[in-house]
Design brief:
With 190 residues, this protein is mainly beta. It is built from one helix and nine strands; from the N terminus they run αβββββββββ. Strand 4 and strand 5 (105-122) form a beta hairpin. The longest helix is centred in the N-terminal third of the chain and has 15 residues, at 2-16.
Length: 190
């Protein structure tokens, strides 16, 4: 997957000189994140995402957008009477294929690679502790969303990311776990 991401990024860099339009800029947003597993988690946590985007416009209706973002994810957990939160902090690289429907309105879909940077858990009894070894260091997801791009450069976006790879790496708990994230973002494309 890393080779595919590097190849697509290199291809985009090569095509920038030939493209009609290439836009870059910052992106910021809110994440509503949960972990899909059995038994079910106790609810979503609110996190954030921030980073940079680059959109290569191929023609009036098609473009490809790559992003490099810091993303806080995780879930609320409940085990008997103990409640806790798990925080998973990723560097994510989505590659979104976009179709412009009308004016600035577009739909988007594509794969995402995530590299785990840190993991924390707060069990409300012992406080904050590291559970790094319980989670795999990478995640593959599929994203789909909608965006509106204003002529003057600002965009607003809603996106859902569904985890495709099991992120559980704990020998103690054998259940599969998958990231699910709904995000609302704003940004500028210059």
């Amino acid at each position: 997957m890393k080779k595919i991401l590097l190849s697509v990024t290199a291809l985009m860099a090569f095509n920038v000189a030939q493209a009609q339009d290439f836009r870059i800029g910052p992106k910021f947003g809110l994440n509503f994140a949960n972990i899909r597993s059995e038994p079910k988690t106790d609810g979503a946590i609110i996190g954030y995402t921030a980073g940079a985007i680059g959109e290569l416009v191929l023609n009036e209706t098609i473009s490809i957008q790559t992003e490099i973002l810091y993303s806080t994810q995780g879930a609320k957990l409940a085990d008997g009477g103990t409640r806790s939160e798990i925080g998973l902090n990723y560097l994510i690289i989505p590659i979104m294929f976009k179709y412009y429907i009308k004016d600035g309105l577009n739909i988007e879909a594509g794969p995402q690679y995530g590299r785990l940077l840190s993991v924390e858990s707060d069990d409300n009894m012992t406080g904050l502790f590291d559970v790094w070894d319980s989670y795999k260091d990478s995640d593959i997801s599929f994203n789909a969303g909608v965006e509106y791009y204003f002529d003057w450069g600002m965009f607003v976006q809603a996106r859902y990311s569904v985890g495709l790879t099991d992120i559980n790496d704990s020998a103690l708990f054998e259940n599969e776990k998958y990231n699910n994230v709904f995000s609302l973002s704003v940004g500028l494309k210059l």
